[in-house]
Structure to design on (549 residues):
């Protein structure tokens, strides 16, 4: 193989010891001298392998509770020396440095540590690896002479190549390993930086941990943001068959890390729609079900049981529900599962499933069933202080890619209560109307702008999404309700943004709407209020907008 280099000495220092002994035995079989540290050395000796301690190479013992053990010229010089550079070779000879050809290192489990409940700052800090990344970077810089392995999953291919070449690794392999190693340290450092920034900062209460006051009372975003993502899987294709795609994990709870219990592989669009469905149902305290098509809800329902909530969600638009994504914010039982399989669905998402429900879903070969590992029942996203689409160690950020960069914003975690409403009309809403307005408002937050939701206190009646003007959204929402004989008289209407003209109120009145919830803030609010008074409609302002582009 091109540029192959025989492995004569190898340093192994790993936290994850799976596959270690198998790799070490292959190396020893080709006469490789093994060098190691503490726990790794013990594991190798316990397997009957001869190993040299790093302390015997450096002449210094491990010290400071293991914080210092490999940070020594006889280690880093053994990695960094360019083998065809006479000055480097002379320096090695003068200082008793012997070359090391292979470095096998994986890092202290910082990512796993900070995900544990109740982890302290001191525990996290002690799991920041120093010697490991230093060795990885030194060896990777000199990839023309040294191979570095940071991923246990690569052991089999390394073993295969060693056996095929009588103990050598090619220049091509060494270069690929170096690129992967630098990516590993970059991801590791980005995770540490994000954790420390959030943990050690004291941001304004409204800033969600992402802002710096800047000394003048004005919130200012930090200068750099690093995304740390690990590939979970390649996907068959993206939004369309001609687009390649993959799914990556940020390490946080969410759809990307859901446990798939049944069904064929998730697609790009499945992930996008399932994310939208899960975000919506988690905005409700009550048992709720959402059915999503192309990221918009075709129906949302609440109920005393999962079956009741599902039937209400389905009744909003049983036609659009075909091929949709169904999300529950409580465990799914057999009764609900039986109802769900009556119509073709792509994905089911829930915190958990009763045994009979799983068996029912598994009767449908291709139905994808996701369990949200770690999801806490009766704890909606807005109360957890996180966003289901993306969270960043306790803070909540959303990223939207544009040509040449990203837009970054706080997640929309605002949760409205009845006490937040500002009734601006002569007529006050009834208790039922207030509940219907709040329900419609919560759903509206998850509908693409311009968004209109018609609802009663327990279910959506019609949804108008993504139109270029708000009146058309009202008409579409009403058309959907009328198509399925859902009564609009006495219903509530939610609008994600203010009404620019009174025509929106006039249009709503045609369909029997008796309560409207909207942000307010238009220069023509007075005209909309006057229209509502003329029609006997109660209207409340929220002071909050919920655009979703």
């Amino acid at each position: 193989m091109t540029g192959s280099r025989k492995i004569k000495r190898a340093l192994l220092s790993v936290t994850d010891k799976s596959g270690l002994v198998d790799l070490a035995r292959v190396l020893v079989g080709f006469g490789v001298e093994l060098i190691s540290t503490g726990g790794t050395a013990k594991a190798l000796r316990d397997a009957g392998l001869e190993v040299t301690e790093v302390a015997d190479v450096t002449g210094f013992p491990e010290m400071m509770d293991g914080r210092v053990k490999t940070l020594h010229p006889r280690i880093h010089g053994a990695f960094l020396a360019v083998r065809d550079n006479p000055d480097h070779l002379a320096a090695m000879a003068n200082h008793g440095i012997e070359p090391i050809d292979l470095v096998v290192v994986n890092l202290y489990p910082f990512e796993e540590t900070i995900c544990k409940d109740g982890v302290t700052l001191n525990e996290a800090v002690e799991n920041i690896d120093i010697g490991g990344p230093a060795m990885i970077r030194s060896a990777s810089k000199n990839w023309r002479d040294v191979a570095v392995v940071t991923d246990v999953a690569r052991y089999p291919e390394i073993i295969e190549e060693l056996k095929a070449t009588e103990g050598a690794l090619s220049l091509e392999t060494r270069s690929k390993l170096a690129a992967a190693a630098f990516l590993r340290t970059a991801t590791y450092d980005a995770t540490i930086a994000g954790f420390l920034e959030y943990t050690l900062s004291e941001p304004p209460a409204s800033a969600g941990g992402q802002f710096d006051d800047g000394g003048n009372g004005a919130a200012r975003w930090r200068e750099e943001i690093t995304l740390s993502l690990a590939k979970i899987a390649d996907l068959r294709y993206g939004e369309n068959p001609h687009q390649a795609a993959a799914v990556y994990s940020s390490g946080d709870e969410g759809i990307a890390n859901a446990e798939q219990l049944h069904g064929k592989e998730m697609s790009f669009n499945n992930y996008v729609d399932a994310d939208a469905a899960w975000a919506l149902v988690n905005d409700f305290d009550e048992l709720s079900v959402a059915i999503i098509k192309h990221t918009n809800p075709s129906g949302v329902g609440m109920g005393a049981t999962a079956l009741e909530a599902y039937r209400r969600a389905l009744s909003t638009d049983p036609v659009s529900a075909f091929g949709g994504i169904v999300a529950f914010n409580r465990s799914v039982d057999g009764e609900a599962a039986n109802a769900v399989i009556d119509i073709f669905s792509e994905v089911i998402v829930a915190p958990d499933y009763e045994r009979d429900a799983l068996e029912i879903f598994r009767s449908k070969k291709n139905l994808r069933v996701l369990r949200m590992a770690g999801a806490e029942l009766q704890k909606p996203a807005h109360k957890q202080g996180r966003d289901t689409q993306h969270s960043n160690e306790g803070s909540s950020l959303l990223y939207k890619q544009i040509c040449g960069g990203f837009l970054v914003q706080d997640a929309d975690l605002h949760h409205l209560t009845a006490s937040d409403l500002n009734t601006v009309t002569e007529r006050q809403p009834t208790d039922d109307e207030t509940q219907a307005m709040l329900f419609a408002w919560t759903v509206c937050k998850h509908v693409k702008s311009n968004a209109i939701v018609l609802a009663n206190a327990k279910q959506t009646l019609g949804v108008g999404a993504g139109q270029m003007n708000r009146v058309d959204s009202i008409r579409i929402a009403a058309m959907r309700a009328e198509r399925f004989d859902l009564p609009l008289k006495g219903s509530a209407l939610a609008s994600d943004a203010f009404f620019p003209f009174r025509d929106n109120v006039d249009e709503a009145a045609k369909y029997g709407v008796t309560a409207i919830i909207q942000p307010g803030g238009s220069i023509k609010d007075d005209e909309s209020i006057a229209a509502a008074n003329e029609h006997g409609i109660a209207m409340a302002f929220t002071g909050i907008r919920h655009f979703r582009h």
Notes: The chain has three domains: 5-197, 249-377, 418-541. The longest helix spans residues 171-200. The radius of gyration is 30 Å.
